[in-house]
Amino acid sequence: MSDINKVRNFAIIAHIDHGKSTIADRMIQICGGLSEREMKEQVLDSMDIERERGITIKAQTVKLNYKSKDGKEYILNIIDTPGHVDFSYEVSRSLLACEGSVLIVDSSQGVEAQTLANVYQALDTNHHIVPVLNKIDLPASDTEKVKKQIEDVIGIDTSKAISCSGKTGEGIQEILESIVKDLPVPEGNSKSKLKSLLVDSWYDSYLGVVILVRILDGKIKKGMKIKLMSTNQEYEIEKVGVFTPKAKDIEELNAGEIGFIITGIKSLSETKVGDTICDSKDPLDKPLPGFKPSKPVVFCGLFPVDSSEYQKLKDGLAKLKLNDSSFSYEPESSSALGLGFRCGFLGLLHLEIITQRLEREFDINLITTTPGVVYKLNKINGEVTDLQNPTSMPDPSQIKFIEEPWIKATVITPDEYLGSIIKICQDKRGIQKDLSYSGNRAVLVYELPLNEVVFDFYDKLKSITSGYASFDYEITGYKEGDLVKLGVLVNNEPVDALSMIIHKEFAQNQGRLVCEKLKDLIPRHNFMIPIQAAIGGKIIARESIKGFKKDVLTKIHGGGARDRKRKLLEKQKKGKARSKQFGRVEIPQEAFIGVLKINKDN
């Protein structure tokens, strides 16, 4: 049985690309978790897409045995967390399973927006924080300046901050020493009755559902009967193990430890993240507080380009859902795009990663409709409903008002770009809340409607600041907004896949852009096609595509030609009117994709 005083549980937190996974690699190397032959870069980033983009998407855990300089042996449980704002729910779960955090700051770039967000989350969870300045091997590294920045912006003491390089391995030993000396010992008693937290669960095609647990009191061992408190279901444990980072079977997990269990569960829906696991023979009176569930904030439609791939898409989504509880989907149909799914995501990067995985792992060509957020409809009859899809918006006469989600955004930028960033935020209906400085960097806090941020705000921010600004946000609540449904009609037929909910102020301009784009992308037919943008019954923009004109008069010569020509032209006119009435306008896929790109281009 392991001694709880020798256990240390900690998360590695940082902004994107500040070197979390690389430092975790060096720790694994020093503690001998993998042999030199098995070692590779970003060993904890197991997905191809993580390795390719150089980002962490899923938090990963590792148990290492470390022998300190004074000869004592310790057990280190590391959780390597994601740095991107879309995956902050992974970070919050990881922090609740630990007692301390190693905060990594790039010594050449300083404090960034996600650094702030993750540190505040760690401080809220009463974590002891070990500050680390990484990348000291870079010529641009300035440790003294960054230490001062950490003290000014975050407000934590940096007198014990450790300088290191994840690339060369310098300073990694000092980090491990600081972890065993400064981080608190987990609380808990192995002799008490079992109390443990379900931190994460995922589906393994060989083993079924794998459950990651943090034992707070008691112990878990093979053959034991456990109970999940949210569902009151009982299961027998078939396997207990830890990641070293390879999965390794062990006999039991004791208080203070993190490991995995396998119970033969086949469906992920039975394992709710944040649930309490107890002994079925000696259950607990009340469950642990658990985690706030993650809620999708961005919704869009996913449709296969080839309608015969619908089943393939359905199977692909079901498989991705197995390992990502924060992603949701439901079937929807569109008269223009056929059968597809309405999907919910945590943000645009999450959306991008899911669509990339579908295209790559399941070989499906996809059309993605305009991303939108969840609105609250307050109807005249007092009913309040959620609205995800513009096509299900009721008649305006039934709506009292619409509320939209707002966020608190933190932007950290070199001060030369401050004017341009303030202008973007003002254009997006932002309200400035705070502006402070640390050296030559400005920390700007704005309140913004999520609808304006969700599509292209991050791209614009990166392009006008040459990639130097960083951005983080949290949802603060709902506010009433002057929102309308902008519909698009082609040949007097509404095209549901192109409708969107938009602020009234921007509707006319957006309607005009959509009509102009469709005029270029829809091919000419034998009849004239009107393209209109409308709010309710009011047309706010229009373009026309001229029809082909066949010259029916070339062969007419001689006497009475004038009357014959007039009759032929009238006959042609009637034929055009009839074909316009019954003819269907085929809208090519490129037209939909072109309209979706409008928001990005403007």
Please describe what this structure looks like:
α7 packs across α8 and α12 (504-521) crosses α14. The chain is 27% helix and 33% strand. An eight-stranded antiparallel β-sheet has the order 11-10-16-7-8-15-12-13. A six-stranded mixed β-sheet has the order 2-3-1-4-5-6, with helices on both faces. Strands 22, 23, 24, 25, 26 and 27 form a six-stranded antiparallel β-sheet that branches. It is built from 14 helices and 32 strands. Residues 42-58 have low confidence and may be disordered. The protein has five domains: 4-182, P-loop containing nucleotide triphosphate hydrolases (Rossmann fold, 3-Layer(aba) Sandwich); 195-279, Elongation Factor Tu (Ef-tu), domain 3, CATH 2.40.30.10; 298-372, Alpha-Beta Plaits, CATH 3.30.70; 376-480, Alpha-Beta Plaits (2-Layer Sandwich); 485-601, 2-Layer Sandwich (Alpha-Beta Plaits). The chain is α+β, with helices and mostly antiparallel strands and 602 residues long.
In short:
This protein is of the alpha+beta class and 602 residues long. It has 14 helices and 32 strands. The protein is 27% helix and 33% strand.
Q: What is the count of DSSP helices, taking H or I runs of 4+ residues?
A: 14
CATH architecture assignment name of the largest domain: 3-Layer(aba) Sandwich
What's the shape? elongated
Low-confidence stretches are 42-58
What level of helicity do the residues show? 25-40%
CATH superfamily of the largest domain: P-loop containing nucleotide triphosphate hydrolases
How far apart the termini lie comes to: 63 Å
Overall number of domains? 5
SSE-based structural type = alpha+beta
Instruction: State mean pLDDT (0 to 100 scale).
Output: 78
**Strand order within the widest beta sheet:** 11-10-16-7-8-15-12-13
The main sheet comes to: 8 strands, antiparallel
Number-wise, the strands total 32
The CATH topology of the largest domain corresponds to Rossmann fold
CATH C-level class of the largest domain is Alpha Beta
Strand proportion, as a percent range, falls in: 25-35%
